[in-house]
Design a protein that fits this description.
about 200 residues; alpha+beta; Aminopeptidase; 7-stranded mixed sheet; 8 helices; globular
Length: about 200
């Protein structure tokens, strides 16, 4: 493994994501979120969704890699993007692409998606300082084997070593119980516009 070692990494095989992995990790998230309730709502054209997700998640992958807190399993089964305390989820150059990219991809629906993004932001706790799980995904070929939760557990072991809390947003509420098993508790929730799906806000001391 390159970068920071996690307790238990020898069993799972976790390594830091580098620029050379960006395309692979972006593809993993595009596939992993293709049937996600919230992000399926945001990108409603099922035939174009994978392509749209490649463009969209690429912004987040590039930002997280720059912080040194993007991780993946050695077998490429799962990946996670973390934002360190005090850092924005997207760097300025990626943030500037958000609205024009959404308007290009989803047209007039971009207004509702931008409202959803505002709700993500307004529900995100500012204090105390914490690590923020921007994305966690498992490749569809590897689902059901515990790879995603194993990666998350390894990440959390490192964050515990640093004595820091963690925060995540559950865009698929079917996963809430999995996060709860790792010590997260729900501290709030919000809804996508026009009666869209709900997102859970989850905190771990």
């Amino acid at each position: 493994m390159t970068g920071t070692e996690f307790p238990g990494d020898s069993a799972l095989g976790v390594r830091q994501v580098t620029d050379s992995d960006a395309a692979e990790v972006t593809e993993l998230f595009a596939l992993a979120f293709s049937n996600d309730p919230t992000w399926g709502w945001a990108f409603p054209d099922a035939e174009k969704r994978i392509d749209h997700h490649r463009a969209w998640w690429g912004l987040f992958v590039r930002s997280a890699i720059s912080y040194g807190w993007a991780w993946m399993t050695d077998d490429g089964a799962a990946a996670s993007l973390w934002i360190p305390p005090g850092q924005p989820e997207l760097r300025a150059e990626e943030e500037a692409r958000v609205e024009p990219l959404l308007r290009e991809l989803v047209g007039s629906h971009a207004d509702d998606v931008l409202t959803l993004l505002d709700r993500f932001d307004s529900n995100h706790p500012r204090q105390p300082p914490h690590y923020f799980l921007s994305l966690l995904g498992t490749h569809p070929d590897h689902r059901g084997r515990g790879k995603g939760m194993g990666l998350l557990a390894a990440n959390l072991a490192r964050i515990d070593e640093l004595g820091m809390p963690a925060y995540l947003e559950s865009s698929n509420r079917a996963n809430d119980h999995r996060y709860e098993r790792l010590g997260f508790t729900q501290i709030g929730e919000f809804e996508a516009p026009a009666g869209g799906p709900t997102v859970g806000c989850m905190w771990r001391e």
